[in-house]
Structure to design on (179 residues):
């Protein structure tokens, strides 16, 4: 789950099945009582058409935990964080970073760092499209050491400079009266 609407959708499905959660938050549902196999199966079946899946094994939960911490950090925090990503993940998930890193790479086929960078670049794209912040302000907001570093990383990931990306996006937009 990546947004409040996702949480609401999952909450509604739980309510329909009479499942009482202790909490429903980003990527995690904690229930009052252990689910019966039939409830678990039905919940999983109901979530799939809505774009969700029921993750019940330990490794998958850890992987989802890593992704959720990174998504939360990049997209929903003000990024005043001065800690290393490895320290944040270790603290929030209660595992050694080397274990988390090896597990993530093994299961996802990419590194935590590359996933983190990809999320940051998606956030840069979003902020560029909104056109409310300068590239310097975006760099500061996402804890880049410089605009040049952000631009180089953006070009490496997307193949475009931030200004070219913005220009291409504007070229594809229609005026409101043409929509």
């Amino acid at each position: 789950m990546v947004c409040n609407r996702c949480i609401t959708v999952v909450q509604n499905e739980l309510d329909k099945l009479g499942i009482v959660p202790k909490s429903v938050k980003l990527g995690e549902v904690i229930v009052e009582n252990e689910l019966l196999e039939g409830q678990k199966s039905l919940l999983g079946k109901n979530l799939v058409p809505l774009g969700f899946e029921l993750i019940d094994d330990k490794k998958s939960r850890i992987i989802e935990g890593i992704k959720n911490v990174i998504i939360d950090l990049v997209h929903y925090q003000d990024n005043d964080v001065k800690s290393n990503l490895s320290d944040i993940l270790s603290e929030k998930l209660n595992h050694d970073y080397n274990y988390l890193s090896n597990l993530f790479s093994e299961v996802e086929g990419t590194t935590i760092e590359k996933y983190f960078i990809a999320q940051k670049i998606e956030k840069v794209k979003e902020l560029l499209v909104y056109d409310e912040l300068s590239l310097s302000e975006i760099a500061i907001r996402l804890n880049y050491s410089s605009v040049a570093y952000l631009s180089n990383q953006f070009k490496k990931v997307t193949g475009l400079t931030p200004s070219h990306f913005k220009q291409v996006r504007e070229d594809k937009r229609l005026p409101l009266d043409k929509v």
User: Anything to note?
Assistant: The beta strands are 21-25, 28-31. The first helix runs from residue 4 to 16. The chain has two domains: 1-54, 57-179. The CA atoms of residues 69 and 89 lie 7 Å apart.
